[in-house]
Amino acid sequence: MVKQISCLAGVLVLALLGGCGGSDDEDLARYIGTWAACTPGTGTATEKETITLGPQSGNTLQFLSSTSIYLGPNCTGTSTILPPTTGTVTFNGTKTIGTEVVDKVVVTHEGTSNKDVLVVRSVSALTLLTGLDAEQGGAVDAEGYPLSLDNNPVFARQ
User: Fold this and answer.
1) Is 10 a residue whose pLDDT tops 70?
2) Assuming Cys at both sites, which of 4, 37, 49, 64 could form a disulfide with 153, CB separation 3.0 to 4.6 Å?
3) Is 91 helix (H, G, I), strand (E, B) or coil?
4) CB within 8 A of 96, min separation 6: which ones?
5) Cα dihedral value 18, 8, 103, 28, nearest 10
6) Would residue 75 be called left, alpha or beta, if left means φ above 0 and alpha means ψ between -120 and 50 degrees?
């Protein structure tokens, strides 16, 4: 199933400050760029979601999300490219999940809006994680934001 940045709209991406939250203009810069994740699909197929985030205005980024479905494992072999999705990610402050400060966001695309959380981690490479929402078996807080992070997929900075 395609998760697009909450759908973030699978969208995600960042710059050079891993692992801390915040939503001023400097902090938004860490999300700007292209991110990709390869996840299991149906049968032996795999799906690669690529999300490009760019500046729009104020506390909002725009995104372009594309998905390719591969017949082989690890996003290899013949692929089918699905139509791209566009939308916005609006940052609305921070919250703590476990020991991590994450950014609260509202992802808007195709006329719908979803609340999600984002965090950039810097381990051996920059990675982007989104929240685990109710549709995926997670729980949400009183404001509607996920209470836990989704470790699948993990988006890697390209």
Assistant:
1) no
2) 37
3) strand
4) 102
5) 60
6) left
DSSP notation for 15-84: -S-TT----SHHHHGGG-EEEEEEEE-STT-EEEEEEEEEEEETTEEEEEEEEEEESSGGG-SSEEEPPP
Tell me which residue has tokens 């490219």: 81
Q: Which one-letter amino acid corresponds to residue 132?
A: L
- In tens, the pLDDT along 62-115 reads 999 999 999 988 999 899 999 999 999 999 999 999 999 999 999 999 999 999
Residue appearing with tokens 């609006």? 90
Q: Using CB atoms within 10 A of its CB, is residue 98 exposed (0-12), middle (13-18) or buried (19+)?
A: exposed
Separation CA 109–CA 112 (nearest Å): 6
Task: Give the Cα separation of 82 and 130 in Å (integer).
Answer: 22
- What's the helix, strand, coil split of the chain in %, to 5? 10, 55, 35
| 84/73 Cα distance (integer angstroms) | 22
